[in-house]
Design goal:
The protein is an alpha+beta fold. The chain is 50% helix and 15% strand. A 6-stranded mixed sheet has the order 2-1-6-5-4-3, with helices on both faces. α4 (34-45) packs across α5 (48-64) and α5 (48-64) crosses α6. It is globular, with a radius of gyration of 21 Å. The N and C termini lie far apart (49 Å). Mean pLDDT is 87; it is low at 321-329.
């Protein structure tokens, strides 16, 4: 059966057909929820790669257990139950809970091309709240929480599930959910980042343009000039942490490309609802080199989180945004 046939069907019709073994009906039934579920897995796991693997398991479990869905709760709730329990299982396989932000070695960026695919009503968070809830600082802080606290906080504070709905989803009492939320909020409050994300204004765009221009001109003084004095740079996979303008600039001029950062070309893109810069090695045929996700604040760039080259979605998006800029200096 083709997608054009099932496109006009009601949810009940799709559900009945999917239960009867119609895979096309199943795909059409789940299609409006997939982007939001993928983002939920990412918030839970902090890793794009792990979210991808979790979603494969979510789809398999949903298909195999479709006959158990009684329809009493909305389909969205049933799917989030599967996605949450799948993510909890995936997270439990990790060796230990990180104690600090700098100990999170699995954190990965989330390309905005996927955020743009979210239906308006798929994730109830308002625009500003959604931007905060996908920021790297927020996602990183979530990873400091025990898994059930993390699930409760995301479901309640981000996705607007009620406490009784979360209790049913997590197989616990409402009192237990409220306790989970209280403890999670206390931890998140202690880990609250110094700078929150916000829509870019004209000054932010000028700062970003000056950073890229200074980098390509190899102008160290100009590069330093767009960084806040208290700028922080982290590189989660390596656990590296640099505090202050001098330390960050010293890193730029000594580490990338073995101290030859002039061979690295930057292409503006976006990740986690934030401005980002995809880096390409000009001496290796414009091969992806790294990704910097930026937090802007009054006075310049307040934070940089750097990632290595394996995060392909962000690079692919950068190439889509600027095909000529990605291939020519």
């Amino acid at each position: 059966m083709s997608a054009s046939v099932t496109a006009g069907w009601t949810e009940d019709q799709l559900l009945a057909a999917a239960r009867a073994g119609d895979e096309e009906a199943f795909r059409t039934l789940l299609a409006p929820h997939l982007s939001a579920l993928h983002l939920h897995c990412y918030r839970m796991l902090g890793s794009y790669h792990d979210a991808e693997e979790a979603m494969q398991e979510v789809l398999l479990r949903a298909w195999r257990s479709l006959g158990t869905y009684a329809g009493r709760a909305p389909l969205r709730h049933w799917l989030y139950r599967i996605a949450t329990t799948t993510s909890l299982k995936a997270g439990a396989a990790r060796a230990r809970l990180p104690g600090t932000i700098d100990e999170i070695d699995f954190l990965e960026p989330y390309p905005d091309r996927l955020l743009d695919m979210l239906p308006v009503d798929a994730d109830p968070a308002a625009a500003a709240e959604r931007r905060e809830s996908v920021s790297l600082a927020f996602v990183a802080a979530l990873q400091l929480l025990p898994a059930t606290q993390r699930a409760a906080l995301i479901l309640h504070d981000v996705l607007a599930f009620r406490a009784d709905e979360i209790a049913e989803l997590l197989d616990c009492s409402i009192a237990a959910v409220n306790s989970l939320l209280q403890r999670a909020r206390a931890t998140m409050g202690a880990a609250n980042p110094r700078h929150t994300t916000r829509p870019l204004d004209t000054d932010d765009r000028q700062v970003l343009a000056r950073f890229v221009d200074a980098w390509h001109r190899h102008d160290i003084a100009a590069l330093a000039g767009v960084l806040r004095e208290d700028v922080v740079m982290r590189m989660p996979p390596e656990g590296m942490h640099f505090l202050g303008r001098t330390a960050v600039v010293d890193f730029f001029v000594t580490v990338p490309a073995g101290g030859r950062f002039e061979t690295i070309h930057l292409v503006p893109t976006r990740s986690n609802g934030q401005p980002a810069l995809a880096a390409f090695d000009t001496e290796a045929g414009m091969q992806p080199y790294g990704l910097m996700v930026l937090t802007m604040a009054a006075g310049g760039i307040a934070a940089i989180v750097g990632f290595p080259t394996q995060h392909r979605p962000a690079f692919e998006r950068a190439l889509e945004l600027s095909p000529s800029g990605a291939h020519h200096r």
